[in-house]
Amino acid sequence: MLRESRLGKHYLKxxxxxxxxxxxxxxxxxxxxxxxxLFLSLATVAAYSYSLxxxxxxxxxxxxxxxxxGGLARKADQKTRSGALLDSVLDRYSDFLxxxxxxxxxxxxxxxxxxxxxxxxxxxxxxxxxxxxSRARGEGLGLSVSVGYFGRGERVITLGIGSVLNDxxxxxxxxxxxxxDHLFFVxxxxxxTLxxxxxxxxxxxxxxxxxxxxxxx
Length: 217
Fold this sequence. Notes:
It is a single chain. By secondary structure, the protein is mainly alpha-helical. The chain has a single domain (6-213), classed as Four Helix Bundle (Hemerythrin (Met), subunit A) (Up-down Bundle). The chain has nine helices and no strands. The chain has helices at 6-17, 19-25, 30-50, 52-66, 69-75, 81-108, 114-140, 152-172, 183-210. The longest helix has 28 residues, at 81-108.
């Protein structure tokens, strides 16, 4: 959904016109960016274990880098199926590492609802994977699907900005009840969990209703 939005189109146009030509002139390869995203995601784990805002910045930076490898592959005429596979697989690792980092944060900064938080992160992880898997499975069966409001781009933006905003609000309003024990961030994770599972169900529903009517290759 993000790619189809006006803001998403403007951002992708900027990526194609500014950083991609610059990276191309530096002879950077698409796989270099793909593995850089994984490296940044690993760094995000350490960042989250220190603070939510630092982890949120890591999520946003790795997400920005992740949007460039496909454009660079097209610019350099190096678009391959193996590269697309590698990008998709490492994206799943990045999703896991971000949530693992959040789990570490709450392990080192425990809250009374520690068990609930662990369960919530597990449900968010499963919802994120199902959103991506339903799309991949649909494409494997010959039908592309992008319905749902919580694709990977939306999840990255929500999680990254939400992490930074949580700590910013705590700094500005240190005594607010709705910020105690990171309640704002917990609520954000809960809404994100609902959103991912709803998006997965939307994609499954779309595929079930349209697969049999789509042309086969």
